[in-house]
Every structure is written in structure tokens, then in C-alpha cells.
């Protein structure tokens, strides 16, 4: 170590004579550090988002929609039969008509109250946003979520109607919603309001996400036991993961065989629906990964190229040093220390740059604040990469024969 | 002289193939990455109708109580209620105005030949076609009379006509939207823009509808929107009529105002309209609040260029800077090694300017090769974008301006990087160089 320090002075003197090359390298290291630490942080942020627990067995569930254009049939009756047909397909665990499909990016949300609408002026009402969907007593099993507290829907809870004013009187909610609308108390048996209609919470599910993972309240979900068969009707089917592909192929034929004045559209797995909703984030993630990898490679190549160039320029000096008794390790060390010095200065400014870039992204865009740990780790990695890129040419330099010095003088 | 310099550059490349390949790779990677994000940006930000975008306006009305917060930056809703859209549609001014709404049906011919398929359909007024310059290849938009009487007529796109009837001319044929028979009165050329700018509310890069029907059919068809519906107050909505009378916003509205006088007049009209609506007791406000944005302002307001894309564009330009610093360093080494040779040329009569130009031509050629390879890398990158995000498939492409920009940026960047090394070389004093040899 001491020996390395003692080399610093001549190295600095040598650097002073080729300032431009050193400054260029510093600039590269600086920008690389600033970009990579911020990009790595965005990548981490997006991949945490993409991998979050949704509460559903995503690889088991199939979504599709049926549009019925025949008007010579009772829709409610037809969908009753369709559900039965679907449940009988080998491999299917359960099936249900459902209003909004979780994780799909389309659905309904509203504010729900602790007081009926007519009494809002009299007291402290709490209004909580939640996504809501409707389904029958098969919906929880179809979505593969379990009741944590309270009970599942029973057939007598289900409101089957075509009248939009007929609302369900009970509901199963996600824990996040229960805790937000009734904090510090057990929500089972409590009543919340949609307009003036009271709804009793009969069951709580620990985790189930709504249709929009980017909603301000992605975890607040309400399921009402209600079936209103529509011309455009969403359907969910759960099959075992192995059978899903074969079930998927047979669904359309079975449905059209039952009644053919309808169209089956948008058949997709829940995982595909989620991937579709999140495709922009995956795109950003992939582009940033490519950017980081290529950027680090280019910087490493730059360092490599500069070192090769310096060695070529100094072949005679190296030969002379070797002739005067310098060990091979001393030659390698010289280049490592030289590059290390440049790199440290570049990293110093790079860290400052990364910090300000992070601050700017936070101000201008909807990104979370950069964790400074990312800057530290990036700086260390850049240092390692840069020393590794020096090592190869430096080793070659250490093999320069001392005779070269004598030969060309 | 230029070709001589090109020849010299080529010889120089061959003499140091390793460094040349490194430099070309650096510039190609820089251009490839930059052009990938820049092409997407370019397609997003491009003005789709440069000759008309300042005449097409999208009014927004704040028909809500004071203190009722909305999530947009200026607290204005993007869409309109049915009441407002219809009132503005039936108003005397301006001449061209188009309420519009996206819905959809299962399209069929009531025959086994064509399997029914789901298609989104736009409901709008006939002015829509001239405002957004749809070109009709057969027939014409429905007539004013048909619009007023809510006739079951439709105009469809060329591709829809070809899907249904195997030919572009299907005027006079009937088509079923769900169970309703519509008569085709016109066929228009497919809407061929990268941005579906007339309906940014439902996704700026979605596919355009392939069929349009009169807006006046909303009540008889009880048409459901295939887009967002936004409300702001509690209303009992138990029937379709309740929905039409409600304060729920679910329609888009466009007007064409050709002159600033017309714009001013329309602003006054909207002010008076809102005062009148307030007097009906629909909402309570201190002052009326509305906005009248033209097409380009509307695209900015709707953030057609995404935040992610802005970040990527700036990151890739920083990346390009790194590549340039890299090339500059390598050029410095390469050119300085050539000083003795330059000394000879100088001694033989080449002047500084010629030496300088020769070296700039060399870096320019480097940039050109790098730019061409960069286009290849960008194509690969754009293919990756399309494969990851099919929603971007129409915009993740390079148009001719981007194809030309790639080598231009590459050559420009390389020349900038080459100026300093070239200057160092041409400064060489021939006498000193000759002496050391």
C-alpha cells in the first residue's frame, strides 16, 4: 500500500502532461455513474411493482367476454347454463360471470361512505375509494382467494336482477378497504353506504388487488353478490395451471354450441391481462437494462482503449523501468493506480451528479426519491469494472521485455 | 479532393482496425440507443395535422361546484356530459362541431359466411369527417337530414368493407351492428395516423374505429360508452334516461374555429352558456371556468409523450455523450500517433486547412458508418419495443426523417468529437516532426 502511495506523485505528474485523455475518462465515468445509479433505481422500483403479490393464482385464471347479439333469449337463464357448461369442462375448478376483471386495467370504482348520503351534512362521514365488482357465490373460488374472516357468499345472498336500482345488501371486501373505512375496529358486521344503500360486510379477504395496479387505492376491493347478465359480459374461469391451455381451446366451441348468436372475445390468462396492463413498465425496465449494460460496456471499452494507447505511447519508458529493475507487478500497479486516481475523481463528480439527477427526476416526474445506497453501490461497481478493464492491457505491458528499451534507444 | 480524403480515411482505418472498430461500435451503440427512444418520441410528439391543428379545438367545461376537486392540472374534466355535448352540438355556432363517443357492437351480416366479430364504433356528427379530413373513396357521409332523423346509416373504413364484402365499394349494402340493420352510405380510406388524436381520452395509440354512426342514435340505441365515465356527485341513476340527464361526463367534443375572431366569439358563447346552465341550478360557482385548447395544446395537456419516454430520451442523449467522450479519447490517441506522417505532408506543401479537413472527413466517414450500423441497432431496438408493448406498434418505427436524422446526428457528433484532435494534428510544426525521424 505504501508503495502504491509513493507512486502517486509521478503518476500525477505524468497525468498533467496528458490532461485531455484523463479528463475525457473522468467525464465518461461521471456520466456513467450518474445514469447507472438512477436507472438501476428505476429498474428496482419497476421490478418491485411488477412482482408484487396480487393475491390471485394468476397462472390458473382465464378471462374472456361474451357479447350476445341475439335478443330471442333470456340472458340470465343463458348465463346460468353457460356457467354450468364451463364448470363441467375437465380441468376447470370453477367459473363465474363477473363485472370487472382484477388486474385487467378496466373496471369500476367509486367512493363509499360510513353514513348514508342523506345524512352527510349531520355528521362525520368518511369517504373511501374502492374498486368494485359483482359476482355470484362462485366468484371467490373462481378468483382463487380465501376468506380470512367472516364467511363466503351463500346462494341466498345473490341478487339476480336486470334492475340497476336493485343493489346487494352484503359484500365481501379486501382487508385494506376494511381497515381504511373502519380503522381500529373489526369490520365484520359493519355497514357502509353506496349513496343511500347500506351494505353489510360479511367477509374479509387478506389480499386481492383491484383492476388497476396503478390506482391511488390498488388494494381496496369490494365484491357484491349480484348478477345482472349483460349483452357484453365478462367471465372468469379457473383451471389447474397444467390444464389451462387445453381448457382455453375448448371454451369457445362449447359456448357457441350452446347458443350461437354471441361472440367470445378477449380470451386471455390473468397473467397475460396483467402483463398487458403493465407492458409500458416492462418496456421501460427492459430499455433501461439495455441502456445500463451497453453504457457500462462502452465505458469499459473506453478505459481499455485509453490504457492500450497509453501503454503503446510509453513502451520505451516501461522497458526502461523494467531494465532498471522494476518488477512486473510494479508496472501493473502503476496503471492500476493511475486509472484508480482518474476513476476516483470521476466517481466523486459522478456521485454528486447522480444525487442531483435523482433530485431532478423526483421534482419533474412521478418517481420516488433516489436511495443513496444505489449511488454507493454503482460507484463501487464502476470502480471494479474500470480496474478490471485496466488489468488486461496492464498485464500485457508488464510483459514488455526490458530489451525493447535498449533496442530502440 | 473529397474522394482523396475518403481514400486516405479508408487507408487509415485499415492501418488501425482495432481502434476503428471500437470507435464505430461506440458511435453505432450511441446512435442505436438514441434513435430508438428518439423515434418513439418523434412519433408521439409529431403534429398529426400541421396545416389544421391550430383550428381544431377541444372545449372543456367546468360544470361542477366550486371546491370539487378533479385530478387534472387545471381541475377541468376531459369529457362532457350528454346534456352539454348536445346543447353545444345544437347551438348556432360554430359551423363545424362534432360531439363523439366510442361504443361498439358485434358486427355481422346475419349470414353464416362472415363470422360475427366485435368492433368499436364511433358515434359522431357528419362534420367530424370534414374536420378530421377523412377521405371518402365511395359514397359520402350521411346527410344532415339523416343525422337529424337519427337514421340507421353508417360509414365504414376500407378495411372493414373489405373484411365484410371482399371489396372496397359496399355503398348500399346492409350490415348488422348487434341486432340493428344499418345501411352503408359511405366508405372512407383507413385512418392512417400514428396517434388517434381525435380521441386521446381512450388511449392515444389505440386503433381507430372502422365504422361511424350518427350521434343522434345514442338515445334510441341506448348506446353504452366504451370509454371512461366520470361523475362528481351522487346521483340516482336507474335508467338510461337518468344517465342522459345526469352530470356524468362520457362524451368528447370538437369544434373547428378558423379565425381568431371565431375563437373569441366562441369563448364568449361558452361563457354565456355556462352562466345560463348555472342559472338552471346545475352547479354553483363563483366564476365560470372552461378551456378551449387546440389540437397541439390538447396533445400536450393529455401527455401524449409519456414521462418514461422523456426520461429515456434524455438518458440516451447522455449516453451518446459518453460515446462521444470515448471516441474523442480514441481519436486523440490515433491522430497524435500520426503526427510524423502529417509532418511529411505539411513539409511537402499541404496547408493546415487541408490537413484539418482531411481529418474531419475521416471522422465524418467514421460517423457515417457508425450511423448506418446505428440504424440497424435502432431497428432491433424498435422491434424489441413493439414486441414488448404492442400498443406502441404503430409508433415504434423510424419514418424517413428519423432515417435521415440517424447518420446526420452520427456525423455531426463525430465531427464535434473530431475537431479538437484534428486541430491538434494540423497545428503540427513540420520541422520538428521531420527532425525526430
Textual characterization of the structure:
The complex is a heterodimer of chains A (409) and B (437). With 409 residues, chain A is an alpha+beta fold. Chain A has two domains: 2-51 and 280-408, no CATH class; 70-260, no CATH class. Chain A has twelve helices and twelve strands. Chain A has helices spanning 2-17, 19-50, 75-88, 139-143, 175-181, 244-258, 270-277, 279-313, 315-323, 328-364, 372-398, 402-408, and strands at residues 61-68, 92-98, 108-113, 127-135, 147-150, 159-160, 170-174, 191-194, 197-205, 221-227, 232-239, 262-269. In chain A, the strands form two sheets. In chain A, strands 3, 4, 5, 6, 7, 8, 9 and 10 form an eight-stranded mixed β-sheet that branches. Chain A has a four-stranded antiparallel β-sheet with strand order 2-11-1-12. In chain A, a hairpin with a 2-residue loop joins strand 8 and strand 9 (197-205). The model of chain A has no long low-confidence stretch (mean pLDDT 87). Chain B has 437 residues and is α+β, with helices and mostly antiparallel strands. Chain B folds into two domains: 2-48 and 306-436, no CATH class; 63-288, no CATH class. Chain B is built from 15 helices and eleven strands. In chain B, a hairpin with a 2-residue loop joins strand 7 (174-177) and strand 8 (180-188). The longest helix of chain B is centred in the last third of the chain and has 37 residues, at 352-388. Chain B is elongated. The two termini of chain B are 28 Å apart.
Report how far apart the termini of chain A are.
33 Å
* Number of helical segments with 4 or more residues of chain B: 15
Helix content of chain A: 40-55%
Secondary-structure element pattern of chain B, one letter each: HHEEHEEHEHEHEEEHHEHEHHHHHH
> Globular, elongated, flat, extended or rod-shaped: what is the shape of chain A?
elongated
Largest beta-sheet details of chain A = 8 strands, mixed
Total domains of chain B, how many?
Answer: 2
The residue-averaged pLDDT of chain B reads 87
Residues in β-strands, percent of chain B = 15-25%
The residue-averaged pLDDT of chain A reads 87
Shape of chain B: elongated
Structural class category of chain B: alpha+beta
- What does the radius of gyration of chain A come to? 33 Å
* Number of separate domains of chain A: 2
The number of distinct β-strands of chain B equals: 11
Oligomer: heterodimer
The ordered string of helix (H) and strand (E) elements of chain A is HHEHEEEHEEEHEEEEHEHHHHHH
Low-confidence runs of chain A = none
Poorly predicted regions of chain B are none
Amino acid at each position: 500500500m505504501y508503495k502504491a502511495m509513493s507512486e502517486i506523485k509521478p503518476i500525477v505528474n505524468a497525468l498533467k502532461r496528458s490532461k485531455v485523455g484523463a479528463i475525457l475518462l473522468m467525464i465518461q465515468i461521471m456520466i456513467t455513474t450518474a445514469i447507472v445509479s438512477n436507472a438501476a433505481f428505476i429498474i428496482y422500483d419497476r421490478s418491485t411493482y411488477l412482482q408484487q403479490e396480487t393475491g390471485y393464482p394468476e397462472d390458473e385464471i382465464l378471462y374472456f367476454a361474451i357479447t350476445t347479439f341475439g335478443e330471442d333469449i333470456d340472458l340470465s337463464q343463458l348465463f346460468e347454463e353457460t356457467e354450468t357448461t364451463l364448470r363441467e369442462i375437465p380441468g376447470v375448478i370453477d367459473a363465474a360471470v363477473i363485472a370487472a376483471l382484477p388486474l385487467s386495467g378496466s373496471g369500476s370504482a367509486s367512493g363509499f361512505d360510513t353514513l348514508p348520503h342523506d345524512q352527510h351534512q349531520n355528521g362525520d362521514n368518511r369517504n373511501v375509494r374502492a374498486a368494485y365488482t359483482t359476482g355470484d357465490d362462485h366468484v371467490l373460488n373462481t378468483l382463487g382467494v380465501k376468506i380470512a374472516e367472516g364467511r363466503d357468499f351463500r346462494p341466498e345472498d345473490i341478487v339476480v336482477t336486470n334492475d340497476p336500482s336493485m343493489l346487494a345488501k352484503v359484500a365481501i371486501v379486501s382487508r385494506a378497504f376494511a381497515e381504511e373505512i373502519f380503522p381500529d375496529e373489526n369490520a365484520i358486521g359493519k355497514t357502509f353506504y353506496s349513496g343511500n344503500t347500506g351494505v353489510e360486510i360479511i367477509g374479509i379477504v387478506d389480499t386481492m388487488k383491484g383492476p388497476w395496479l396503478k390506482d391511488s387505492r390498488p388494494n381496496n376491493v369490494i365484491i357484491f353478490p349480484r348478477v345482472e347478465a349483460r349483452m357484453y359480459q365478462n367471465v372468469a374461469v379457473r383451471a389447474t395451471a397444467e390444464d389451462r391451455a387445453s381448457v382455453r381451446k375448448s371454451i369457445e366451441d362449447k359456448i357457441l354450441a350452446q347458443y350461437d348468436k354471441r361472440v367470445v372475445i378477449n380470451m386471455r390468462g390473468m397473467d397475460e391481462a396483467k402483463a398487458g396492463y403493465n407492458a409500458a413498465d416492462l418496456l421501460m425496465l427492459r430499455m433501461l437494462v439495455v441502456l445500463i449494460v451497453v453504457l457500462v460496456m462502452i465505458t469499459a471499452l473506453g478505459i481499455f482503449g485509453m490504457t492500450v494507447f497509453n501503454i503503446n505511447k510509453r513502451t520505451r519508458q516501461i522497458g526502461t523501468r523494467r531494465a532498471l529493475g522494476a518488477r512486473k507487478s510494479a508496472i501493473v500497479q502503476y496503471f492500476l493506480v493511475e486509472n484508480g486516481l482518474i476513476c476516483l475523481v470521476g466517481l466523486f463528480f459522478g456521485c454528486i451528479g447522480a444525487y442531483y439527477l435523482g433530485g431532478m427526476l423526483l421534482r419533474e416526474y412521478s418517481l420516488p426519491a433516489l436511495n443513496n445506497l444505489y449511488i454507493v453501490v454503482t460507484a463501487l461497481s464502476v470502480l471494479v469494472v474500470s480496474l478490471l478493464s485496466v488489468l488486461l492491457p496492464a498485464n500485457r505491458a508488464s510483459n514488455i521485455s526490458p530489451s525493447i528499451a535498449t533496442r530502440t534507444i | 479532393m473529397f474522394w482523396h480524403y475518403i481514400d486516405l480515411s479508408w487507408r487509415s482505418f485499415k492501418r488501425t482496425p482495432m481502434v476503428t472498430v471500437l470507435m464505430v461500435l461506440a458511435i453505432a451503440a450511441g446512435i442505436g440507443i438514441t434513435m430508438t427512444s428518439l423515434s418513439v418520441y418523434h412519433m408521439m410528439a409529431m403534429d398529426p395535422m400541421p396545416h389544421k391543428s391550430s383550428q381544431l379545438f377541444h372545449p372543456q367545461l367546468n360544470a361542477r361546484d366550486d371546491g370539487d376537486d378533479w385530478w387534472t392540472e387545471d381541475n377541468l374534466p376531459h369529457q362532457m356530459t350528454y346534456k352539454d355535448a348536445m346543447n353545444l352540438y345544437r347551438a348556432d355556432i360554430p359551423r363545424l362541431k362534432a360531439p363523439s363517443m366510442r361504443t361498439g357492437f358485434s358486427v355481422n351480416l346475419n349470414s353464416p359466411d362472415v363470422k360475427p366479430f366485435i368492433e368499436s364504433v364511433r358515434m359522431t356528427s357528419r362534420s367530424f369527417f370534414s374536420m378530421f379530413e377523412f377521405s371518402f373513396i365511395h359514397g359520402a357521409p350521411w346527410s344532415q337530414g339523416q343525422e337529424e332523423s337519427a337514421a340507421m346509416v353508417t360509414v365504414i373504413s376500407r378495411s372493414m368493407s373489405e373484411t365484410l364484402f371482399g371489396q372496397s365499394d359496399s355503398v348500399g349494402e346492409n350490415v348488422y351492428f348487434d341486432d340493428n340493420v344499418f345501411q352503408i352510405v359511405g366508405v372512407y380510406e383507413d385512418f392512417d395516423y400514428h396517434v388517434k388524436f381525435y380521441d386521446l381520452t381512450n388511449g392515444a395509440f389505440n386503433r381507430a374505429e372502422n365504422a361511424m354512426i350518427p350521434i343522434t342514435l345514442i338515445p334510441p340505441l341506448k348506446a353504452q360508452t366504451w370509454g371512461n365515465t366520470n361523475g362528481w356527485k351522487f346521483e340516482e341513476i336507474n335508467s338510461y334516461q337518468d344517465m342522459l340527464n345526469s352530470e356524468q361526463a362520457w362524451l368528447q367534443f370538437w369544434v373547428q374555429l378558423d379565425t381568431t375572431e371565431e375563437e373569441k366569439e366562441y369563448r364568449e358563447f361558452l361563457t354565456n352558456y355556462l352562466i345560463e346552465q348555472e342559472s338552471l341550478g346545475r352547479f354553483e360557482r363563483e366564476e365560470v371556468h372552461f378551456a378551449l385548447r387546440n389540437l397541439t395544446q390538447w396533445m400536450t395537456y393529455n401527455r401524449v409523450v409519456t414521462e418514461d419516454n422523456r426520461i429515456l430520451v434524455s438518458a440516451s442523449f447522455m449516453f451518446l455523450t459518453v460515446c462521444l467522450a470515448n471516441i474523442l479519447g480514441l481519436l486523440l490517441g490515433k491522430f497524435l500517433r500520426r503526427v510524423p506522417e502529417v509532418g511529411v505532408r505539411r513539409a511537402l506543401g499541404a496547408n493546415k486547412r487541408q490537413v484539418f479537413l482531411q481529418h474531419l472527413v475521416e471522422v465524418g466517414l467514421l460517423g457515417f458508418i457508425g450511423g448506418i450500423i446505428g440504424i440497424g441497432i435502432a431497428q432491433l431496438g424498435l422491434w424489441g419495443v413493439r414486441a414488448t408493448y404492442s400498443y406502441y406498434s404503430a409508433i415504434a418505427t423510424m419514418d424517413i426523417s428519423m432515417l435521415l436524422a440517424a447518420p446526420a446526428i452520427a456525423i455531426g457528433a463525430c465531427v464535434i468529437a473530431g475537431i479538437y484532435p484534428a486541430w491538434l494534428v494540423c497545428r503540427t510544426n513540420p520541422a520538428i516532426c521531420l527532425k525526430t525521424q
